[in-house]
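ok here's Gustatory receptor:
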Amino acid sequence: MELVNFLIVSSTTYIYAYLNRAKYLKIFNMIVSTWSGIPQSPNSRNFLMKLYVSTNMILIVIVILILLQIYLNTNQANIVQKFIVGITLNMPQVIQFCFLAFYTTLVRCITAILARITENCKSLKASDEANMSIRQMELVYMKVFEIKMDINKAFEGPILASLFQSFHALVSEAYLIYYAELHTNDTSKTFVYNNGVWITCQFIKIYLLSYSGNSLKAEAFKIGEALHYVSTEGQGLRWMMEVQHFSTMLKYQSMDISVFGYFSLNATLMFNMSASAITYLIIMVQFA
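and the structure:
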């Protein structure tokens, strides 16, 4: 079943990558043009540095997990078994991690753009003249919303397949460890370590999706908070209407990322999938 799940994930990822190859270029161009259209500030480099560090941390963790998985699998005694495991399990998981890293990096990029909007929005409290007007911030936000919609459509298929595979792996691998410890006396440490790393990989995948979606939504919420504290005292009617219009747009053009509208990718995803996996595992253990 795990091989079938990986086949579905790999096939879905390839199909979506082929169908959305032009959309990826559009997303990259829009991210660059939107970032360049925001006036530079002393903190602009700090935002880029944070983005650089977070992206590298994600890649480092993924590489470490992949190398650890390969190391554990190469300890198999049979050379044929090494080859089969490498082709059928390790390689599809590398493909899966690559598309998740790509997706997370894109979401982090537009999150950084929203952070710059928040910075400019907060500067409106200090003086009437800011680096950006409210109308300019609104236009940038609309561009980010369009990028978010493109990212959502380009990745929702592989994300759904990946979540299904991760959920199945969480339940099945944990059950295999329990069953081996319960019914066999010679369970090897390599088997336990390998399955443990495999379970950890699934949690990492779910966490990447939860973290990226939640950080994007949280950054949009910060814009609303900053806009709420913008002073309208002594300002004209046009100023107040722009603030109200921007606030309304933040409400109805949410930065929430969903999978075909069924569920959102936010902080609750990690909890819901973990709780569901534990529930299924308890049910299976009762019939072991």
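+1. The chain has one domain: 1-287.
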